[in-house]
Every structure is written in structure tokens, then in C-alpha cells.
Amino acid sequence: MNYQPSQSRVESSKGAYDPFTADDASRIQALLRKKLGPEHVSTRQGMGNSRLSYVEGWRIISIANEIFGFDGWSSSIQSFAIDYMDTADGGRYSIGATCVMRITLRDGTSREDVGFGMIENVKSKGQALEKVRKEAVTDALKRAMRQFGNVLGNCVYDKEFVRSVSQVQKQPRGRVNGETLFRQSDLDTDGKEVQQLASGANGNGSSVVPSNQFQSAKAMNPNIVSGSKGTWGV
Q1: How far does Cα 98 stand from its chain's mean position?
Q2: Which residues, including other chains, have CB under 8 Å from residue 185's CB and lie 6 or more apart?
Q3: How far apart are the C-alpha atoms of 93 and 126, rounded to whole Å?
Q4: Edge to edge, what strands does the sheet with 92-105 contain?
């Protein structure tokens, strides 16, 4: 099965490419030159007894969003094909798929590369297709992204660097802080009002919270209690 190329979102949303300012270009180049810390590098079993180093797809996307901005880059599938679909006795499937992905920055700079996904000897045809499609797309995205610089994964192809960085102590991930999470109240139309009420935004440390907002406010401020005239945050 083949897919037609999809249009670049960066280009279609703005009508034309938008060059980076000199300051932005300098900042981006400096960040792209950086090599990844050990906390960003994962390993998995390779052929024989070898270990392969790689960067997970979600990390590459997060880093790209931080460097280029959420609206500073786009991905587009140039082609997608199922390379083979073999069926063994018993109805088990082995499937391989190839994807060509293009990454385009807001200034029109682009890189593209091919990714591959495969699965062997599984019963479910649907699950097999789902797995190889996602794997091929993610692999293509990462391979295209790495062409922009070390920080987007190119450094893990440097075996000497991988050996050296494995000796560096990983930075621990910060503990989850409830205040930094995107909560249900952020989706509510009165979410900001609930946050203000829960924190005692009236200046004296307490707030009357309407009954329909009580559960959201209570989740933010455990000290909120109910009263005869409403719900109060203390």
C-alpha cells in the first residue's frame, strides 16, 4: 500500500517560509552542536551480543519543540509502502514497511530520510500492520531529524562518544509537581477562576468556591471545606 506525500504544515499555515532571525539562527546552531547527555540515550540488544544506542522518538520531538518551537518545524510523509507481507502456516504474519519522511523548518530548510519497521511471526494481522507502520514512521522521523545536528540524535552514531558518555552520571528526572501538570481544570472554561479560588486569590487566604467548581478546586487545595454559604478555601 502506497501513500501520497502530505503537505508541509509550516509552509501551508503561513503561505510562505519565514526566515529565522540572526539571533535565532545563532541560538539554534549552538544548540544543535551540543551532544546529548546520557539520560537521553537508551540502549537495546543488537545482533549477537552487541548493544545498540538510540534516542526514543518522543525525546527527539520534545527536543525539536524546544529548539525550533512548536510551530517552527513540520514533518511530512513523502512515501510509505509495505515491502513484504508473508503468511506462514497457522496464519502468522511477517511484515516489513518503509517510510520516507521529510522534516521542514519554518525557514524552508528540510531534511529527509528513510525508516523501516518490521515484525515477525505474529497472529494478528492488524496488530502487525499497526506496529510496522508506527515503527517505520518513527524511524524515518528520527533519521531525518539527526541530519540537523548532534542534539537531535546524530551523536549516537559516534561510537567513541557513546563509550565516553556512558561513563557520565545521568541527571535524575525531576519529581512530578502537581502545579506543572496539565489538569482537567485547564480544559474547563472557568479553569483559571478555579485556580484563583483554590489559592485564595481574594487576598486574605480564603475563597468562596461555587458548588460546581468544588471538586476541581479541592484537588488543587486540600484545605478547601464546605460551609452553609458555600465552599471556602482556608
Answers
A1: 21
A2: 191, 194, 195, 216, 219, 220
A3: 10
A4: 73-88, 92-105, 110-122
User: Tell me, what's the pLDDT at 32?
Assistant: 98
Cα–Cα distances in angstroms (integers) from residue 90 to residues 8, 83, 121, 122, in the given order? 43, 22, 10, 10
Across the range 93-108, mean pLDDT stands at: 97
Residue type, 112: E
Q: What angle do CA 112, 1, 126 make, to 5 degrees?
A: 105
What's this model's pTM, rounded to 2 decimal places? 0.73
Q: Which residue, among 227, 223, 230, has the nearest Cα to 200 in the 3D structure? A: 223
3-state secondary structure of 109: coil
- Do the Cβ atoms of 8 and 104 come closer than 8 Å? yes
Q: List b or e across 158-189, with b for residues whose CB sees 16 or more CB atoms inside 10 angstroms.
A: eeebbeebeeeeeeeeeeeeeeeeeeebeeee
Band (pLDDT 50/70/90 cuts) for residue 180 is confident
What's the Cα-to-Cα distance from 224 to each of 25, 182, 202, 216, 220, rounded to whole Å? Answer: 49, 21, 14, 11, 9
210: helix, coil or strand? coil
From the list 134, 130, 111, 112, the residue with the least C-alpha distance to 122 is: 130
Cα angle at 84 between 78 and 85, to 5 degrees?
Answer: 120
Helix (H), strand (E) at residue 71? none
Q: What is the distance between the alpha carbons of residues 86 and 178, in angstroms, rounded to a whole number?
A: 48
